[in-house]
């Protein structure tokens, strides 16, 4: 409960601060008690080494951060489980149910909803984004917030809509605070999106954003260098099923375009390239 002695100006400042946190993605509490992140942290006790003797003054101790072997084993087991569940799905309903029952990815525990897909599953154009944001997590649909509204306008500029495309994400669960997903989280979800693409069977694949492009193209190259280039998407090259290839292009994420409006000129070029490819394929 707020202090009754707080002035109106202070209330306004607190409301503005809260709004700024929400817009930055910090819209959820992760603990019951507040933590002062700026407080001084006590120096850790020196590790005893050298046969049980304290380290010599000024001696540098090697730092070898490694994930516990049990954690690595758990990640591998979850990835193997995801592959098995995805391969067993014979249609989109099966795949959705398999993902809903998958407990290996920790993102599921913090997300409100599974964000599966939107649009027309019979469409010849499939868009794959990165991960749900706050609005998507609440509604259970991809690209429904501000970036989704911009995406709708981008599609409309070349005669497309949600009735003529199919939209999904590499990750079906929102990372807390919209943080970048970890490699392990992405690896656990990759079998599902690869099977998703296989079941839909689009003629053209559009990767929206850096995470999607890097994972589906199997590269570490950044989105600013990947965008606008047509590639042959081969799921077998990144551990997916063999026998299904298609032309694919990467585009800048609408959320990035909202922050960098000047880059919309590049997005327009990519949209025109997509329109040309559709005409070339008779779509």
Automatic annotation (TrEMBL):
<dbReference type="GO" id="GO:0051539">
    <property type="term" value="F:4 iron, 4 sulfur cluster binding"/>
</dbReference>
<keyword id="KW-0408">Iron</keyword>
<keyword id="KW-0411">Iron-sulfur</keyword>
<dbReference type="InterPro" id="IPR005122">
    <property type="entry name" value="Uracil-DNA_glycosylase-like"/>
</dbReference>
<dbReference type="Pfam" id="PF03167">
    <property type="entry name" value="UDG"/>
</dbReference>
<dbReference type="InterPro" id="IPR036895">
    <property type="entry name" value="Uracil-DNA_glycosylase-like_sf"/>
</dbReference>
<keyword id="KW-0004">4Fe-4S</keyword>
<keyword id="KW-0227">DNA damage</keyword>
<dbReference type="GO" id="GO:0004844">
    <property type="term" value="F:uracil DNA N-glycosylase activity"/>
</dbReference>
<keyword id="KW-0234">DNA repair</keyword>
<comment type="similarity">
    <text>Belongs to the uracil-DNA glycosylase (UDG) superfamily. Type 4 (UDGa) family.</text>
</comment>
<protein>
    <recommendedName>
        <fullName>Type-4 uracil-DNA glycosylase</fullName>
        <ecNumber>3.2.2.27</ecNumber>
    </recommendedName>
</protein>
<dbReference type="GO" id="GO:0046872">
    <property type="term" value="F:metal ion binding"/>
</dbReference>
<keyword id="KW-0378">Hydrolase</keyword>
<dbReference type="InterPro" id="IPR051536">
    <property type="entry name" value="UDG_Type-4/5"/>
</dbReference>
<dbReference type="InterPro" id="IPR005273">
    <property type="entry name" value="Ura-DNA_glyco_family4"/>
</dbReference>
<feature type="domain" description="Uracil-DNA glycosylase-like">
    <location>
        <begin position="116"/>
        <end position="272"/>
    </location>
</feature>
<feature type="region of interest" description="Disordered">
    <location>
        <begin position="33"/>
        <end position="68"/>
    </location>
</feature>
<keyword id="KW-0479">Metal-binding</keyword>
<dbReference type="GO" id="GO:0006281">
    <property type="term" value="P:DNA repair"/>
</dbReference>
